[in-house]
Amino acid sequence: MTTIRQGAAALAVVTALLMAGQAQANDRYATPPPIVLSPDLSQPWVMQLQNPRAQGVRASAPRVVTRRPAGERRVYQPRQQQQAALTRPAQPQARGIDPIYLPQTVSYHGGEPAGTIIIETTDRFLYLVNGDGTAKRYGVGVGKQGFDWRGAERITRKAEWPSWRPPAEMIAREARKGRHLPTFMEGGPQNPLGARALYLGSTLYRIHGTNQPWTIGQAVSSGCIRMRNEDVKDLYARVNVGANVIVR
Description:
Elements: H1 2-28, H2 39-50, H3 79-87, E1 104-107, E2 117-120, E3 125-129, E4 134-139, E5 142-143, E6 151-160, H4 168-176, E7 196-200, E8 206-208, E9 219-221, E10 225-226, H5 229-238, E11 244-247
Parallel strand pairs: 2-11, 5-9, 8-10
Antiparallel strand pairs: 1-4, 2-3, 3-4, 6-7, 6-11, 7-8
């Protein structure tokens, strides 16, 4: 009898263990309970969601959409080009000359015959005498200090778009300044002699154009008389070889 009771008790224990194991297996696949945070952890987040400005959170600005006209294309630049545009130095403005140096007809009663050229180096003016009490006046650039000169010569040659052979002393002088001149330069827009040249006697001096028109009215040359290209073209057409030139 005792043996039967012990067997029944053992069976009950085994049954209980099996039922407990099954309950644990079922719990593994059950829906987990909700996670609950304490108020000290959850309250700051709730306040930020309700009022972002009060907590120092930047609220995003409303997006503004601008519609382009139909057919208009937007051009995008690579980032490198955008940066270059921001850092690129401003381009220098084109320089002009004082309007007083622009050509005009003025009264002139110097007594020289028509066709004579008078150059007033102090005033930076060249006069072409008309012979009727007037003269055509042009602005000029003259020799800088140490290279200015006075005298009378005749026009011995005329040339259109002249070539340029800098004198040896000029090449050496400029080389000492770190500027290296060519021994020869063909005529053209980049040539310092400009569009026309009137050669004075047997000297190295000329009345010529320039590729630096903003220097008209200044003492900047090595002795030559420079004019704007459009002005030297006009003078070139009005005078002949043999005309007198007075520099004073």
